[in-house]
Design goal:
The complex is a heterodimer. By secondary structure, chain A is an alpha+beta fold. Chain A has two domains: about 150 residues, no CATH class; about 180 residues, Histidine kinase-like ATPase, C-terminal domain (Heat Shock Protein 90), CATH 3.30.565. Chain A has a five-stranded mixed β-sheet, covered by helices on one side. A three-stranded antiparallel β-sheet of chain A has the order 1-3-8. In chain A, helix 2 packs across helix 4 and helix 3 crosses helix 6. The radius of gyration of chain A is 36 Å and the shape is rod-shaped. The mean pLDDT of chain A is about 85. Chain B contains eight helices and 15 strands. The longest helix of chain B is centred in the middle third of the chain and has 20 residues. Chain B has two domains: about 130 residues, Response regulator (Rossmann fold), CATH 3.40.50; about 110 residues, LytTr DNA-binding domain (OB fold (Dihydrolipoamide Acetyltransferase, E2P)), CATH 2.40.50.1020. In chain B, helix 6 runs parallel beside helix 7. In chain B, the strands form four sheets. Chain B has a five-stranded parallel β-sheet with strand order 2-1-3-4-5, with helices on both faces. Chain B has a five-stranded antiparallel β-sheet with strand order 10-9-8-12-11. Chain B has a three-stranded antiparallel β-sheet with strand order 13-14-15. Chain B is an alpha/beta fold. About 5% of the residues of chain B have low confidence. At the A-B interface, helix 7 and helix 9 of A face helix 1 of B.
Chain lengths: ~350, ~270
């Protein structure tokens, strides 16, 4: 997880960078007087490496206080406190090493001579720690960018898969079989009507096939597809289907995923009207307000209808497609009460011009 | 045209689409020996027509308003040749399990229809001439009720949501959550729902098998109870218990039933 600790090569490079820093500290110590260059190097190099290690802990405080979502006071308080603590600890180690070096008679009296430099060293340590904080924020941002990229890629793949699956499931074969059976009935009784139905069916099929390649179509195009679908179903069900459309003028050019509404209307026919002896109604309302397109598909249904032995794949598909495409920006809501089935959905109103 | 003298037959056509019924009528037009006595557009009408007219042959759609094709068969005890006519191929196995003679997939042509009618006539002939019984029924004293067959044909792990019952030519639908308990009465079950009792020709075992076992339990040889309705279990005589339902009804509990019920209530 840690971008430096988790990778040996990076850790090596990082620690290598602390050698010149150790050299600089040694130079400062030596020029401040009372300490030889040898003594300063012996003290500064190992302690610089140690501090390098200690500074890696900044990763955790950086992750805990993300740059974008934390107040300035919180950022300053967190990192200054951590810098103070780390530097304090480090000064303790400086003391201990100086004491050891004196005690072992390598550099006698070093601890006494270096003690005047502790405030200076503390200051350097605080600055160095804050520098590594900055470094960690850069690393954090890089990692986030990489993750976001991977997520976008993943989402794209998922959306594509869902889209393909949904489109494959779209044209219900039973709709075809039943329509063909109606045509077969009409051939002997009403040849003109049979031909008309063939044409309507062909028209509908051609439109659905063409739509598979597009990622979005204007609402008006989807509506004309629905009309083609209902024209076929009206021959099958006769006067049992009543369709009412209320599409606002501003909504007609809003871009929507193709075949988003057709399955809802197919559902309304298959699960609603097909079960009503006297027939029923379908109402489709579309309104565009504040950059949001709201669509309601309602239909009458028989609450005591026999259970359909085929589950409603249509609704699940539409919900999934909205979710993968728009995430939280779209809503999908199904309600039913006393003989009325209602699907309400909202999605961002994108138009051709703003399409990316 | 035929080698044997044709049997005359009376047919009922059930489909909610007028055009689908028209195809059947047209194909039957070249068979004067078959008379179409009724056309029905939904399940209720189908039950009524079959009960009253007792046809020899039934053309039956599956997905229809009110009652689906299988539910229609559950409510009919009249034996006749059944030909399913549907656009769905996934009910074929189930259709043959309820002893359908054929399964026509829409759209179908005249050849396919003739084959189905041929098979139906064979079945009709067997029945009316009193000759060899159809293979499925041989050995048995009489066929099991349609409700039992329909229940047996239900896919596993899919339980019924409602029980259709018939009183004369009238059909009632009992949603399973309205069902308090069922009691076996000879060849029938008595279904108690909302204070009323409905008789249905079905065995209690086949009803039990069709009901969700997490909601319904066989507490006695003759009783299946809706577990939500059980208020408490009380000792009755030595070694026996009664289940008291929330409406005060008391049902006998067998020893095996008590063990099952205890296990459920202690959970």
């Amino acid at each position: 997880m840690h971008p430096i600790l988790g990778n040996l090569r990076r850790l090596g490079l990082y620690l290598l960078a602390w050698f010149p820093i150790g050299g600089l500290i040694a130079y400062v110590l030596a020029t401040s007087g009372g300490i030889s260059t040898g003594e300063a190097l012996a003290l500064a190099i190992p302690l610089a490496l140690l501090f390098g290690f200690m500074c890696l802990s900044a990763w955790y405080s950086c992750r805990g206080t993300p740059l974008d979502h934390s107040s300035l006071t919180r950022l300053a308080a967190t990192h200054l406190l951590a810098a103070g603590l780390m530097s304090g600890c480090w000064i303790f180690f400086v003391k201990a090493l100086a004491h050891e070096l004196s005690g072992l008679q390598i550099y006698p009296g070093l601890d006494g001579r270096v003690s005047k430099d502790y405030p200076l060293l503390f200051g350097i340590a605080v600055l160095l720690y804050l520098l590594t904080v900055a470094l960690h924020y850069v690393l954090l941002t890089l990692q986030e960018a990489q993750e976001a990229e991977a997520r976008v890629l993943q989402a794209g793949i998922l959306a594509r898969e869902a889209e393909l699956k949904a489109l494959k499931a779209q044209v219900n074969p039973h709709f075809l079989f039943n329509s063909l059976n109606s045509i077969s009935a009409l051939t002997s009784s009403d040849a003109v009507k049979a031909r008309e139905m063939c044409i309507l069916l062909g028209d509908f099929l051609r439109r659905t096939l063409g739509l598979g390649e597009k990622s979005a179509i204007p609402l008006a195009e989807e509506m004309s597809l629905i009309r083609a679908f209902l024209a076929v179903e009206k021959i099958r069900f006769g006067p049992r289907i009543q369709m009412e459309e209320n599409v606002e003028k501003e909504a007609t050019d809003v871009q929507i995923p193709p075949l988003l509404l057709q399955p809802l209307v197919e559902n309304a026919v298959g699960h609603g009207i097909a079960n009503l002896v006297e027939g029923g109604w379908i109402r489709l309302d579309a309104r565009c307000q504040n950059g949001t397109l709201s669509i309601v598909v309602e239909n009458s249904y028989d609450p005591d209808a026999p259970p359909r032995r085929r589950n409603g794949v249509g609704l699940v598909n539409v919900r999934q497609r909205l979710a993968t495409r728009y995430g939280n920006l779209a809503t999908f809501d199904v309600t039913h009460d006393a003989g009325r089935f209602r699907v309400a959905l909202t999605l961002p109103a994108e138009r051709e011009a703003q399409k990316s | 045209m035929s080698r044997e003298p044709e049997k005359r037959g009376r047919a009922v056509i059930v489909d909610d689409e007028a055009l689908a019924r028209q195809v059947l009528r047209e194909f039957l037009g070249s068979h004067p020996e078959i008379e179409v006595v009724a056309e029905c557009a939904n399940g209720f009408e189908a039950v009524k027509s079959v009960t009253e007219l007792k046809p020899d042959l039934l053309f039956l759609d599956i997905q229809m308003p009110k009652l689906d094709g299988f539910e229609v068969l559950e409510l009919i005890d009249h034996d006749m040749a059944i030909v399913f006519v549907t656009a769905f191929d996934n009910y074929a196995i189930k259709a043959f399990e309820v002893h359908a003679v054929d399964y026509l997939l829409k759209p179908y042509g005249a050849d396919r229809f003739e084959a189905a009618l041929g098979r139906a006539k064979l079945r009709m002939g067997d029945k009316s001439s009193g000759g060899a019984a159809p293979r499925e029924f041989s050995g048995a004293l009489r066929p099991p009720p349609h409700a039992d067959l329909a229940a047996a044909a239900r896919p596993p792990a899919q339980y019924i949501q409602r029980v259709p019952v018939r009183d004369g030519a009238r059909v009632f639908i009992i949603p399973v959550d309205k069902l308090d308990y069922a009691e076996a009465q000879d060849d029938y079950v008595s279904l108690c729902a909302e204070g009323k009792k409905h008789l249905k020709q079905q065995t209690i075992s086949s009803l039990e098998a069709a009901l969700d076992p997490s909601r319904f339990m066989r507490i006695h040889r003759s009783f299946v109870v809706n577990l939500e309705r059980v208020a408490r279990v009380e000792p009755y005589a030595k070694d026996s218990h009664v289940a008291v339902l929330s409406n005060g009804t008391q049902l006998p509990v067998s020893r095996a039933g008590y063990a099952r019920l205890r296990e459920f209530l202690d959970r």
